[in-house]
Write a structure and sequence with these properties.
Length: 281
């Protein structure tokens, strides 16, 4: 095998509770990660000379900080592999919107190159490598909808109804670091008792602060709630609502405010990257 094309899907945080701050400054969370069936696409082509190249439909993303390049270099270094690759990233997901696109791209890179370079590293090893790139990467490596604790790396798979979501990203960039450093962030939520995840009070502890600091997020939620109950994902700025069918979701999407980007996606219990990898067997 010399080429491989794989998806890198988005996630929603159906709830995000912050239960405390750790000594290293990071926060312990409890969150319900819902994978979606839409996202970016990555194409990998094997190189024998060990070099790693990146091309992308968004030229701003072609730089050494791209999580795709960082994941590829990390894997090459860890495994001692002498092979290289050219990677084309077709970016569809809004960036920095709480949809985990960068983390998902990194996870797909780890999974894809593990295959293309025939490394046969275990999923546990890939998830640990991924965690050093970002808190959400292990979720996308494991590829199942899950209840998460810690900074998001302790994952328990969950089977949820595969609902239809409208995801709306207002035209603003929320800094994750700014939100977590803010003195007014709610960071003392009680942990959910074992077995009560599905009946817990689902809310996003970052949402009140983000709505105050970024009024466009509050305005977007006020627009969306006219159609269905809605919430913010991650540290924002994207918001989402579940709809009973395509027609009602399309109806809301057609009324989207001018300063927003929106798409419809289905929640999935298993990441499409696993089906795509299985097709290559
Ligand atoms: C909170 C979540 C929920 O999905 O938000 P989104 O990024 O998806 O919006 C993520 O876990 C975010 O993960 P990620 O986006 O990888 O965050 P990082 O780049 O690792 O962290 C940026 C900064 O946020 C703070 N941070 C991040 C995660 C965490 N659990 N506690 C923190 O305090 C740290 O100050 C860190 O320096
Ligand atoms: N492949 C990538 N795709 C998107 N963003 C990336 C990528 N690599 C690095 N980044 C950087 O990571 C930041 C967060 O990206 P993203 O994962 O899309 O958002 P979030 O963490 O809010 O869900 C972006 O603002 C961008 O600067």
């Amino acid at each position: 095998m010399t080429t491989l094309t794989l998806p890198a899907v988005a996630k929603l945080n159906l709830f995000l509770h912050i239960t405390g701050r750790r000594e290293d400054g990071y926060h312990n969370l409890e969150t319900l990660f819902q994978l979606l069936d839409v996202g970016d696409e990555l194409r990998f082509s094997l190189r024998q000379d060990g070099a790693i190249g990146l091309d992308c439909n968004n030229s701003e993303l072609i730089n050494e900080q791209n999580l795709v390049l960082r994941a590829a270099r990390l894997l090459q270094q860890y495994s001692g592999c002498k092979l290289g690759c050219d990677i084309y990233l077709e970016k569809h997901l809004p960036m920095g919107g709480g949809l985990g696109g960068g983390s998902s791209d990194a996870a797909t890179t780890l999974l894809g190159l593990n295959k293309l370079w025939q490394l046969q590293l275990s999923i546990d090893v890939l998830a640990d490598l991924g965690l050093s790139l970002g808190a959400d990467v292990p979720l996308f490596v494991r590829g199942f909808t899950a209840f998460a604790q810690g900074v998001g790396e302790k994952l328990q798979p969950l089977q949820l109804d595969e609902k239809l979501y409208l995801v709306v990203t207002p035209n603003c960039h929320v800094s994750t670091a700014e939100i977590f450093q803010h003195p007014d962030l709610i960071r003392n939520s009680k942990p959910i008792p074992p077995g009560e995840v599905l009946s817990a009070n689902w809310r996003n502890d970052c949402q009140p602060l983000v709505e105050r600091l970024y009024p466009i997020v509050a305005i977007t939620l006020q627009w969306l709630v006219e159609y269905a109950p809605c919430q913010m994902t991650g540290t924002g700025a994207s918001v989402f609502a579940a709809f009973p069918d395509q027609t009602s979701a399309q109806h809301a999407l057609a009324q989207l405010p001018a300063n927003c980007h929106g798409f419809i996606a289905r929640g999935v219990n298993q990441s499409p990257v696993w089906a795509a990898l299985a097709d290559t067997e």
